Amino acid sequence: MGLVTVWSYLAVALLAVTLVVLPRVRPDLLDRPAELVDRMMREPAARVVVVVFWWWLGWHFLAGVTLA
């Protein structure tokens, strides 16, 4: 079971590195991550989703430890 978890994290890390490196190597194939975020943040609904996501992340990983 632990080996599956390790391989899953490695696959996610490899995908993240690929999504950062690929636009620099082949700019015609994929936009850079900063351009994708800029395009996404033009929409007000996306801004709300990002704020709620950061709130949820902070509440579960930061506030939970201090309130326990």
The first-to-last residue Cα distance is: 30 Å
State the low-pLDDT regions, or none. Answer: none
Number of structural units classed as domains = 2
The secondary-structure element order is HHH
Strand content: under 5%
- The SS-based structural class is mainly alpha
Mean pLDDT: 87
For the largest beta-sheet, the strand count, sense and barrel status come to: none
Taking Cα atoms only, what radius of gyration do you get, to the nearest Å?
Answer: 17 Å
Number of strands: 0
User: Count of DSSP helices?
Assistant: 3
Give the overall form: flat
**Helix fraction by DSSP (H/I, runs of at least 4):** over 70%
Notable features of this structure?
3 helices; 0% strand; 68 residues; mainly alpha; 82% helix; 2 domains
